[in-house]
Design brief:
- The complex is a heterodimer of chains A (305) and B (442).
- With 305 residues, chain A is mainly alpha-helical.
- Chain A has a two-stranded antiparallel sheet.
- The radius of gyration of chain A is 25 Å and the shape is globular.
- Chain B has 2 domains: 182 residues, 3-Layer(aba) Sandwich (D-Maltodextrin-Binding Protein, domain 2); 228 residues, Periplasmic binding protein-like II (D-Maltodextrin-Binding Protein, domain 2), CATH 3.40.190.
- Chain B contains 17 helices and 15 strands.
- In chain B, strands 1, 2, 3, 6, 11, 12, 13 and 14 form an 8-stranded mixed sheet that branches. A 3-stranded mixed sheet of chain B has the order 8-9-15, covered by helices on one side.
- The relative contact order of chain B is 0.18.
- Classes of the chains: A mainly alpha (305), B alpha/beta (442).
- Chains A and B meet through strand 1, helix 5, helix 6 and helix 11 of A and helix 1, helix 3, helix 4, helix 16 and helix 17 of B.
Chain lengths: 305, 442
């Protein structure tokens, strides 16, 4: 009884903000928002009902149509392709960078550890939208100090070009999340028992060998967590492309699947629009993210053996 | 590359950041209007919330100042204007949220291209019963834009007829005249190119607005409401003519393919590479700002005609003040909308080509000086009268526009063709109407 009471705050909130919305969106995904038109209406160009109902839009049951639409949508799969490519490059780069920083901080080379630890982590404290805005500023050729420096070497780089956009975004997310992942690794490193290092030193291992033979293998669990979180983060890529699309119209309203879901739900920029198709997009993406995580875990386990 | 930050660029980027910041902003006061049928009393006035996107810039008559005059004259009605700083699309989401939340928003600025879509989203109110006494104050074209399926949803405020802007001095140097039709434009463009200059642009970030306006100017309707449903014609002959004209100009590098809001556009304008372009009627108010001069040799002319015997133009932007669903005092709201939309000098000061016909617009002195002493607003008023009155934006225009913009951004020499652009638009228009459950005539 007491146990349940202690669990109640969590269980209630979990139900309210997690389970209920998921169930609601599962239900919604079988409906589509269409104009309310009844038989007697003379001129239904904008939809109309002759009755007293004031509803202009109505939800109609469409079975699996929304899912069929998502699975055959070119916009959806282009978006999925983009985030996959993005993740395949960005996640390994970021994970290796954070592991490197964590080992550096954990080593004895560095003095004033707090300054560096905080410094690397600080970008994570900046909200995603603000970070994207700051970087948009840094990417705009006429304003960018980066472009100025590249200009000294005769290089003119357009960070907003169709080929570079994905990597300009990858740079933003890497900048934001490297410090966060570093903390995960750092926690794991500091949990390594000191006896292991002592034993290694007695065996004559140098600093490099300690790092590669002890530290890296011992943080495998942490790496798994960091990679899983990163995969999920990649699938949910939204802030950066949304901000960048304001300046770069060619990106369209569906550059990533999450942007597509959002712009389908409100604003009418993607047709069919409404909560129904948007829910279907979100659910398909959730399944895809789950599959990706599963595949990663299986591969990881196989490699570990 | 030098680190040259121009004033205009800074302002542009500033506006961009401000607009993006608004994505995460919600705000807005949730004040419900007082009960009352025919206006309140001075002690207990009817409150009308009004959401607008007017610039309210330096030297303009601020919306709040105009509204203060109204409030003084009408003690029974208190109007509370709020400026929305984000993109138009974001303001429509905000309006929708207000309707859902029932926070008493009464009047909102809605672009003509979003009237139909806002209506089918259930955001606008049918105020036909209060409209009759006001409709005579406005030009027919814009009044039609504020009407959906016979229902009046508000009153028009400004229009954006397409016009042509050009540098007379540069034209004189080249020995060319301002083109009155697209054949003349083609010949003049060739002369200008020999000197490394462009007399026109294809603006990759304004495709939906500019190309729909051009199609209207060529005589197309795009969305025609018939008894059997929507007739969609982004693939008609008139639109084909627009495609052909622009394709030829792009293929032969006779117009500059550039983003209107790119800094490279500003650079080309300031550097004298762009000496003319088609633009919207609301652009002369700020178009030359980046030159940072008080007097220039630029002037405004009519859009080159597709059919010289019947010169016409089309809409690029323009909006009205619509009554939002859930407004508790629609009658007073319409009174307010009409009052403000007929304050011609105030609206002209905001850079608008006004839709009201109650008063001749006077070109402000500084604008006149900037535009070679030309009476710019009388040219704009003429352009207003030339506007194709039958052109309509369908109720699923936002998704069609998004496709046109996304596809149009890739139009270039050897890239996406104009024909492919309009084909994509036609397909998007038909499927989006079907998706929305609205009748389409195949």
């Amino acid at each position: 009884m007491v146990g349940w009471a202690f669990m109640a705050p969590f269980a209630l909130l979990f139900l309210l903000v997690f389970i209920v919305p998921i169930l609601a969106s599962v239900k919604e995904s079988f409906f589509r928002q269409v104009a309310a038109i009844d038989e007697e209406c003379a001129n239904p160009l904008y939809g109309c009902t002759t009755g007293s109902a004031d509803e202009v839009v109505t939800s109609s049951f469409v079975g699996w149509d929304n899912f069929l639409y998502v699975l055959t949508s070119e916009m959806f799969w282009s978006g999925v392709g983009r985030v996959m490519l993005f993740g395949a490059v960005q996640v390994p780069v970021m994970i290796i960078a954070s592991l490197f920083l964590a080992i550096l901080i954990d080593s004895t080379i560095i003095k004033r550890v707090t300054v560096f630890r905080l410094g690397y982590f600080l970008p994570f404290a900046i909200p995603g939208v603000i970070a994207a805005l700051v970087w948009t500023y840094l990417y705009t050729p006429e304003l960018s100090p980066i472009s100025d420096v590249l200009g000294w070497f005769g290089l003119e780089v357009d960070f907003f070009s169709t080929n570079l956009m994905l990597w300009s975004m990858a740079n933003i997310t890497t900048w934001t999340f490297t410090g966060y992942n570093m903390l995960i690794f750092l926690a794991a490193l500091q949990a390594i028992p000191g006896e292991l290092y002592e034993a290694a030193r007695i065996d004559g291992a140098n600093a490099w060998q300690v790092a590669t033979r002890i530290k890296v293998p011992m943080v495998r669990g942490a790496a798994m967590l960091a990679v899983l979180l990163s995969i999920i983060g990649t699938v949910q890529l939204f802030n950066e492309p949304t901000v960048l699309a304001v300046r770069n119209g060619w990106m369209g309203p569906g550059y990533t699947p999450m942007m597509m879901a959002y712009n389908t739900a409100i604003g009418g920029q993607i047709s069919p629009s409404g909560v129904g198709p948007a829910s279907a997009i979100s659910l398909v993406m959730a399944v895809l993210a789950g599959l990706l995580a599963l595949v990663y875990m299986l591969v990881q386990r196989r490699l570990a053996k | 590359m030098t680190h040259s930050v121009k004033k205009g660029n800074k302002a542009l980027v500033g506006a961009f950041f401000a607009s993006v910041l608004m994505i995460s902003g919600c705000g807005g006061t949730a004040e419900t209007a007082e009960e009352g049928t025919t206006g309140g009393t001075a002690e207990d006035p009817v409150v009308i919330q009004y959401l607008h996107r007017l610039p309210d810039g330096e030297g303009m008559t601020l919306v709040q100042d105009s509204i203060d005059r109204f409030n003084d004259e009408h003690p029974g009605i208190q109007v509370e204007p709020t400026k929305f700083d984000g993109q138009p699309d974001e303001s429509y989401s905000k309006i929708h949220q207000s309707v859902v939340a029932g926070d008493g928003l009464c009047l909102a600025q809605v672009g003509y291209d979003a009237i139909g879509s806002s209506f089918i989203a259930g955001d606008l109110m049918d105020v036909s019963e209060y409209a009759d006494e006001y409709t005579g104050n406005y030009a027919e074209g814009p009044m039609t834009q504020m009407t959906v399926g016979g229902a009046v949803v508000g009153l028009p405020q400004d229009t954006g007829p397409l016009i042509y802007m050009y540098d007379t001095a540069a034209f004189d140097d080249l020995g060319i005249e301002v083109p009155t039709n697209w054949d003349e434009f083609y010949e003049a463009a060739k002369v200008a190119r020999e000197d490394g200059k462009y007399i026109g642009t294809f603006q990759t970030d304004e495709v939906k607005a500019l190309m729909s306006g051009q199609a209207a100017a060529a005589g197309s309707t795009w969305f025609e409401g018939t008894e059997d449903g929507w007739e969609v014609s982004l693939d008609d002959e008139a639109t084909g003519q627009v495609a052909e004209v622009y394709q030829k100009l792009i293929d032969e590098d006779l117009i500059k393919v550039v983003g209107r809001w790119d800094t490279s556009f500003t650079d080309a304008l300031v550097g004298g590479e762009i000496i003319g372009t088609v633009g919207a009627g609301w652009e002369p108010a700020f178009f030359l700002g980046d030159l940072e001069q008080e007097e220039t040799s630029w002037e405004v002319a009519h859009l080159p005609a597709f059919d010289p015997s019947n010169p016409s133009t089309g809409p690029d932007g323009g909006s009205g003040v619509a009554v939002v669903k859930g407004c508790e005092n629609p009658e007073e709201a319409m009174l307010v909308a009409d009052w403000y939309n007929t304050q011609v000098p105030d609206l002209v000061s905001q850079g608008l080509v006004v839709a009201a016909t109650t008063e001749e617009p006077q070109t402000p002195e500084d604008i006149k000086k900037l535009w070679n002493g030309q009476d710019v607003y009388s040219v704009l008023a003429e352009a207003n009268d030339r506007m194709n009155p039958d052109f309509a934006f369908g109720p699923t225009w936002p998704s069609v526009g998004a496709v046109l913009n996304e596809t149009g951004a890739t139009v270039s020499q050897g890239g996406t063709s104009m024909e492919e652009l309009f084909d994509a638009g036609q397909t998007a228009a038909v499927t989006s109407l079907e998706d929305a459950g609205l009748p389409v005539v195949e």
